[in-house]
Amino acid sequence: RQDSGRGEPKTLWGSSEPRPPAAGPGQPSPQQRTETLGFYESDRGRKKKRSLPDLSLLRFISAELTRGYFLEHNEAKYTERRERVYTCMRIPKELEKLMFFGIFLCLDAFLYVFTLLPLRVFLAMFRFITLPCYGLRDRRLLQPAQVCDILKGVILVICYFMMHYVDYSMMYHLIRGQSVIKLYIIYNMLEVADRLISSFGQDILDALYWTATEPKERKRAHIGVIPHFFMAVLYVFLHAILIMVQATTLNVAFNSHNKSLLTIMMSNNFVEIKGSVFKKFEKNNLFQMSNSDIKERFTNYVLLLIVCLRNMEQFSWNPDHLWVLFPDVCMVVASEIAVDIVKHAFITKFNDITADVYSEYRASLAFDLVSSRQKNAYTDYSDSVSRRMGFIPLPLAVLLIRVVTSSIKVQGVLAYVCVVLFYCGLISLKVLNSIVLLGKSCQYVKEAKMEEKLFNPVLTATPGKPAGKQQGTFKSTQGISTDENGSTSVINQPLHQKENMPSLLVTSNSDQFLTTPDGEEKDISQDSSELKHRSAKKDLLEIDRFTICGNRID
């Protein structure tokens, strides 16, 4: 290469030596000769190296035994693996804390049916009877909550008397005469039917409550209160029978001689691991499954109570027989807990979900409880638990009342005194449980920093009216405040309205807490097609949240 016309011409290696002469026609170039010579020299070198005594078998084995490596060269990878192990170790504790809180939420909603609901029905009927004495000051004869309480009480009484026409003994012997395989299939079918009928049943009850309390000045867009009422009675009755068949099948498994049916039924829980672990789960999916597990565990506890009551009645309330049932009860409870722990541990491992997510779930459930205590709450707490977890207490309460009244005979004045004392004890338990749950819920909401979400309004879009016209209708809402003494109270607070709300459905703040993505949201002022897509996705999540009871089907 010529160096800009200055000095000697240089070769490719930067020296000033002249270039080699060009090869003649048919002769190899000097570069080709050099490459050929280097090939033969390297081949002779390899042959020479192979003959060296250093590359012996002993040296190879010595190198394999003394070979080292440094893990810190891939520190991020091994740190992530260690965190996964720690997450799996934390899952049992965090999961059981969520389960413990959720079970007491279900217990509070279940005790409400036996304790406060009869008193609220009595007060509503007293108001309705004495209304002419005080005059009609309001357009409504009864408040919407009082109408819903009366409907619940009437449905409970009607279904209780209808359950007297169902013979439990005949059902027990009919199921006991079936083979083990048939009973196993029946039990699996009952579990699926329970989830399906629960999801549809809460819609039936909500439709009845709204139809009965809908303002009369609005246009009639329903079939009437009476048809909805009969649909609700039919649903509660059929669901109670379904739960009775489940309890009867479990009772047959307890009383089988070789316990083979009980073992097969418990192994069905481990089959649930196969159907859940190897699916992709997000936070919302895992929240749905956690709520389903809470409901399933509480329902199993009530079924075990029914089985124990029926068995104790057959053995004339002999306390020795209770110790015979105790190992089987422990096996059922232990298998349920073990399956839940293993299932959630591997789901969080495969989907890279931290154990702190269960604290978020617990805070969301606590937020529902705190929101239902506000003066402008749009639903009762027991209905909120029903929608969130798929736990509907009415059918289970009907069955338990039917079993208790048929197993325990009340005769004499002393027996009635015991019943009154037992009822007072239930009320005390309900009040104590509610106070503790409300205090814990306020604590969880504060720890999750969700207090500001209580100040956001709950938008409800009227059919035919845009959401923007209703933004000015809400003037205040309520939140949690702490006074100087440290006590927590629910007070009215001014709200700050959010602008450009895309959703037209009823929005729960706890739903926003879980459906908000982890990263930063995109700007809402993008093109209209993207805005419609995002709002439709959010609406689907909210509809899923209140309609699907049990595991999501992906």
From TrEMBL:
Compositional bias annotation for Polar residues: 470-487
Keywords noted in UniProt: Chondrogenesis, Membrane, Osteogenesis, Transmembrane, Transmembrane helix
Positions of transmembrane segments: 98-115, 149-166, 229-254, 391-408, 414-439
Keyword Glycoprotein appears in the UniProt entry: no
GO biological process, one term: cartilage development
Entry coiled-coil feature ranges: none
Pfam families: DUF747
Membrane topology of the entry: Multi-pass membrane protein
Residue span of region Disordered: 1-45, 462-487, 510-530
Low complexity compositional bias, start-end: 24-33
Cellular component per GO, a single term: endoplasmic reticulum membrane
Annotated compartments: Membrane
Family (UniProt): Belongs to the TAPT1 family.
PANTHER family according to UniProt: TRANSMEMBRANE ANTERIOR POSTERIOR TRANSFORMATION PROTEIN 1 HOMOLOG
Protein name (record): TAPT1 protein
Organism: Oreocharis arfaki
